[in-house]
Design goal:
mainly beta, about 30% strand, about 60 residues
């Protein structure tokens, strides 16, 4: 399963990442935001291939 990316502001807290990645992972709204990759990982476990999500809280 592929999880969607998140969006960050191109200014403020997201400015440093935007300077590094630009729109590599998507342009966001095209002017004030950009997409960042989802960093959660899925691992397969069990004999039927059920998946567990690692790194996600909730």
């Amino acid at each position: 399963m592929c999880r969607p990316a998140s969006t960050l502001s191109r200014t403020g807290n997201g400015a440093a990442l935007f300077a590094l990645w630009g729109t590599t992972y998507g342009a966001g709204d095209g002017s004030t935001t950009f997409n960042v990759p989802n960093t959660t990982k899925e691992i397969q476990h069990g004999h039927r291939g059920t998946a567990a999500v690692v790194g996600e809280h909730g």
